[in-house]
Amino acid sequence: MQPKKKAILISLCVSIVLMLAKFVAYFITNSNAILTDAAESIVNVIASAFAFYSIYLSTLPKDENHPYGHGKVEFFSAFVEGVLIGIAGIIIIFKSSYDFFYPKEIKQLFDGAIIIAITGIINLAIGFYLIKTGKRHRSLTLEADGKHLLTDAISSAGLVIGIIIIYTTQIFWLDSAISIALGCYIVFNGYKLTRKSVGGLMDESNIELVKDIVVILQENRQESWIDVHNLRAQQYGPDLHIDCHVTLPYYFDLNEVHQQISNIDQLINVSGSHETELFIHADPCLPACCNYCKMPNCKVRQEDFKREIGWNMENVTKNQKHFSQ
C-alpha cells in the first residue's frame, strides 16, 4: 500500500476508536466540555474518510481529461475538512452557551479526564505522523488532517486541565465556559484550514516555493540569463508546476535557447526539494537590458555593463523586464 494511503487509513481507524471513547466519557460525565471534544471527533472521522478518497484520486496518473493530474482534489478535501471543523465549533458554542444558563449535573469527572487524556496523547502521535508523512510526500490532505489532530490534542489538553479545575473547585459553570472557549479555538482553526485550501483552489502562488526557486536561480545564474520575471508556482497534490519568462540574448538560435531553458529545468530539479514541471517562455533582450547584462564579448551591446540586478521576490514575480522597474 502507498505510504499516503496507509497513513490516512491509520488515521481513519484511530479516529473511529477515539470518537467512541470520547462519547463513552461524555455519557459517564454528562460534561459539555467533553461533548465538545466528542463532537469534534465526528468531524475527524468524516474528514479522514473524505481524505482517504481524495488521496486515492490524487495518486491517479494524468489522463486526457486531467493533464495536470488529479492532485487538486486535495485542496477540496482540505476545504471540506475546514468547513466541517468550523460548523462543529459553531454548534459547540451555541450548545454550551445554552447550558451555561441552564446547567446540567456533572459527575465522574476524574474518569472522564483520564479517557480524554489518553485520546489526546494518541491524537498527538498520529498528528505528528501524518504531518511528517504529508511533508515527505507533498500531500496537503495529510498535513491538514495531521494539523487537525494536533488541534484536537491541544483541545484535549486544555479540556483535561479544565476538568481537573472543575473537579477540585466544584465550580460547575466552568464546564460550559471551557467548552465555549474550545469552540472558538476550533472555529479559528477551521477558518485557517479553509483559507489555505481556497488559496490552492484559486491557484494562489506558492510563495515559499517561489522563494526557494529565486534563491536557486540567483546562486546559480549564468551570464546569458539576463533576467527572470513573471515567476509563478502552483502545487497540485504531489505535483509542482512553475512558469516564468527568461530573457536571453536575441541572437541565440533555437537550439541555444532550448539548451538554456533545459539548463534551468535541470537546475531546479536537481537543486530543489521537489520534482517540478517547468514552463519557461524565452524573451529576447532589448537595448535597455545592456546596462545590467553580463554577457561577455557581445557584438551588439549598445551600452556598457553598469551593475547586476539581484533577483528577489520583489522583481522576479513581476510581469516585466527589470529595466522597466
Automatic annotation (TrEMBL):
Membrane topology (UniProt): Multi-pass membrane protein
UniProt keyword annotation of Metal-binding present: no
Pfam families given in the database record: Cation_efflux, ZT_dimer
Subcellular location(s) of the protein: Membrane
Protein name: Cation transporter
Every Cation efflux protein transmembrane domain range: 8-202
Family: Belongs to the cation diffusion facilitator (CDF) transporter (TC 2.A.4) family.
Alphabetized InterPro entries for the sequence: Cation_efflux (IPR002524), Cation_efflux_CTD (IPR027470), Cation_efflux_CTD_sf (IPR036837), Cation_efflux_TM (IPR058533), Cation_efflux_TMD_sf (IPR027469), CDF_Transporter (IPR050291)
Membrane spanning stretches: 7-29, 41-61, 73-94, 109-129, 149-167
Organism: Pedobacter cryotolerans
Listed PANTHER family: MITOCHONDRIAL METAL TRANSPORTER 1-RELATED
Domain Cation efflux protein cytoplasmic: 216-285
Keywords: Membrane, Transmembrane, Transmembrane helix, Transport
Top-level taxonomic group: Bacteria
Main location: membrane
